[in-house]
Amino acid sequence: MATIIDGKAIAEKIRADLAAQVKELQSRGITPGLATVLVGSDPASEVYVRMKGDACNKLGMHSVKITRPAETTEEELLALINELNNDPAIHGILVQLPLPPQINADRVLEAISPAKDVDGFHPYNVGRLVTGKPTFQPCTPYGVMVMLQEAGVDLAGKEVVVVGRSNIVGKPVALMCLQRNATVTICHSKTRDLPGRVRAADVVIAAVGVPEMIKGDWIREGAVVIDVGVNRVGEKKLVGDVEFAAAAERASAITPVPGGVGPMTITMLLHNTLEAAKMAGSGKG
Ligand SMILES: Nc1nc2c(c(=O)[nH]1)N[C@@H](CN(C=O)c1ccc(C(=O)N[C@@H](CCC(=O)O)C(=O)O)cc1)CN2
Where does NADP(+) bind (predicted)? Predict the structure, then answer.
């Protein structure tokens, strides 16, 4: 039976350390500030943005939640980003995704100052990630890497299979694993024999957004399973991309949903916002 990698517990430990660092920074006259921007009223996005604001406030950070109607134009959103780029009380800007279809998300993400890009989605920061330079690392993949480290998983020489190729999770997490000397395979909807690929993995990172798509009997005995999926099934139930109970019988360690990668995503956002504030305070922002 697998060990559970408890994202909530790891997140709490990191947040306690971040709170102490926020206090120290405040004693030097700097309060880290995060602006979240939500366009429209997608219920899941509303929950995530609220959680981000609450998490900031709990740590003593300054947070501003900006909501705009679903009909907002790209120009209006770009003007807002420009204001936030020039606001000295704001060190981090986060535009909640997805955006409504009339808005080109790439153009909006590129408008965020790279020094305030705490999501790590600006092409400048993506380029630095690709080339292995220090940068804001995208929050969910960053959280995955911290969880693997906390679970004592050394990736060097391991076969890592990432299922999913999104810009938010699949691609960056694959790069981060490569940076730690894993042999990485990225699988997607056109991959032939997905079960066979997964069965060859020492570490499986599932980020497809399809409820329980990765079957328990695809998991190799002793593999580590990181489930990034947060899928709502019915009114209230949340499930991951992996068939949890069956996978846990074969894996050596596995993340639950909820309480796995999700809480780490917000924790790494807090971490990045604090770093952005420190850099601004030292004149490097
Ligand atoms: N600008 C961004 N947009 C989106 C990102 C992102 O990193 N930046 N990621 C996802 C959603 N997301 C953060 O925004 C996110 C998803 C899940 C959780 C989380 O804590 N989940 C909990 C369950 C919460 C619940 O009850 O719904 C868990 O898994 O335990 C946090 C953040 C898309 N958009």
Answer: 164-166, 230
Distance CA 95, CA 66 (A): 9
Any ligand 1 atom below 6 A from CB of 265: yes
Selected catalytic residue, list 6, 17, 87, 119: 119
> What does each C-alpha distance from 8 to 1, 5, 47, 58 come to in angstroms?
20, 9, 17, 15
Ligand 1 neighbour 142 (Cβ under 6 A): no
Give 235's pLDDT tier (boundaries 50, 70, 90). confident
Asked if residue 269 is part of any domain, the answer here is no
Residue 166 annotated as binding site: yes
Range of the domain at 218: 139-262
Distances (CA, A) of 155 to 26, 145, 211, 223, 244: 37, 10, 27, 12, 22
Q: Which residue in the block uniquely carries the two structure tokens 């993340």? A: 255
Closest approach atom of ligand 1 to CA 98: 34
- Residue 184 lies inside a defined structural domain of this protein: yes
pLDDT tens digits, residue range 75-99?
999 999 999 999 999 999 999 999 9
pTM, entire model: 0.97
Give yes or no: residues 167 and 206 share one domain. Answer: yes
Is 119 a catalytic site residue? yes
Any binding-site annotation on 230?
A: yes
Query: What are the tens digits of pLDDT across the range 29-69?
Result: 999 999 999 999 999 999 999 999 999 999 999 999 999 99
Q: At what angle do helices 123-130 and 170-179 cross, to 10 degrees?
A: 30
How far, in Å, from the CA of 283 to the mean position of ligand 1? 31
142 alpha carbon to ligand 1 midpoint, in Å? 13
Number of structural domains found in the chain: 2
Is the ipTM value over 0.90, yes or no?
Answer: yes
Question: With a 6 A CB cut-off, is 119 part of the ligand 1 pocket?
Answer: yes
